[in-house]
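Q: Fold this one first, please.
A: Sequence and structure below.
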Amino acid sequence: MKEAGVIRVTHVYSQPPAKVWRALTEPALVARWWAPGDIRAEVGHRFEMDMGPWGKQRCEVLAVEPERLFRIQFALNTTITWALVSEGTGTRLELTHEGFDLDSPMGRRAFEGMQPGWPGVLARIAPVAEEL
């Protein structure tokens, strides 16, 4: 039986959704908090993210709702969704990274590595958004 893993992380920023959105969707900004790549907020856009020692990962933009939702297909056939919710003058960002095949050694290793890693990665968005 195939078991799928899901990672959910929430982070709150003091910046409004417009600034967090830019940090999520503009290549030069994404490179500062996550990885370089030609990311673009355009459904169907295919690009690569350079994940350093893990190599270049093929990605595709699956859903775009400006300042509300951004979803991409990522490595190992996983899906990453960033949902933005306005909260006072700031933004609550809910990340869901799903589709890890926990029955495969590679899928399980990726899940176990990324689960504790995402909170730190999301924290790195704050200084980028503050400068916008």
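Q: Good. Now the second chain.
A: Here it is, same layout.
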Amino acid sequence: MIKRELSSILTFYAVSPIHAGSGASVATVDLPIQRERHTGYPHIQASGVKGSLRDHFRKFNETNDEKLINFIFGSDTQDGWSKYDDSQPGAISVSDAKLLFFPMRSNVAPFVWVTCPTVMNRLKRDLEYAGISMEETFEVKDDGAQVLKGDFKGVAKIVLEDALVVVSKEEPIEVDFINNNFSEVDKLLLISDKMFDYCVSSCTEIQTNIKIDSKTGTAEDGSLRYQEFLPADSILYSIIYYSASSQELQAVNIKNYLQTTINSFLQIGGDVTLGKGVCKIKWIDGGK
């Protein structure tokens, strides 16, 4: 059982495509993204989330205190921790960043967001552990769809890339947690697990990369590669738990240090020099 004194939900809005690589090629994609083993849904492993938080904190923490960085994130020689000292566990616990809303090209807007019962019920359990209750139940089958947010009145059938879903009820399911914390999401559909699997398996972004030979001006032999990205406008969330690191450094202080320093944008995943992985973040306080 994780020792927790305080918790937060950290949300990630992908401003640019994210490549959190799995390191193993599959089929025709040379550089695929990380996916959950049991569902196949894209995610970002906790180590990648924590590493990005640490890197951002290291660069932008005004106190420039390496001891503080080691206390919050765990001891590391990169932050001046002596290899001869005992290791220090971090005062925060970070979960995987799980996919919450996925953007899909549509006939009713440039894109709409989709989610599914499995994702929403999992969010419900995660929020419960973080002390936030969500009472709604979620169920959609086959090619059905229910409105979670936005105006879909008069639209019975919606095209999602190459698939078609049928809206069974125009009036949205009122979910307070979504309405209160995701104002940027204006059109959100709950679709079936099967349809969601199609979306996140077939509609991620694949980019082609080559390297130009400066002498010939042509592509270098063997430089062609196909790289997968979680598309821009994807929304993910991670749960952060805080515990006291010492008598002087209580959980509330750690939470304040972290949220004050990391409060607008965060880069996560690879290809930072290509502008990838930029996320607008938001902190949501956990309950009791």
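Q: Anything worth noting on the second one?
A: The chain has a mean pLDDT of 91.
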